[in-house]
Amino acid sequence: MRRLRVIAFFIFATLVPLSGQPDPTERVSHLPEANPYRAVALRWLSLPESDREVLSNWLSPDASKENASAPLDASHQVIARALANDLAAASKIGASQSELWPPKQDPKNPDNPFHLLIPDVGAMLDLARITTKVADTSPAADAIPLYAATARFGRDIRSGATLIQGLTGVAIEGIASAGTARRLTAFSPQELELLSSTWRQLPQPAGIEHALQSERNVFFIPLLERIILPGLLALQAEGIDTLDASSGSAVSPALKNLRLSGLIDADGEQLIHLENIATGHSFSVTNKRSAEGVKLIRFDAKSGRAWMRINGTPAVLDLQSKQFVSARDDIARLRKFLGEDLGNEPPSKTPEWVRRALAHPDGPEGYAIDLIEEYDRRMAEQVLSAQQSKKPQPVTPAPSTDPLLAMIMPTISQVARTLNAASLQPTLLEAAIRHRLGQSGATPPDPWGLKGSAETTAPFAFEKTPDGGFLLRSAYENRSGEPYTYKFGAPDAGVQRKPSSAQ
Question: Across the chain, what does the average pLDDT equal?
Answer without folding.
Answer: 84
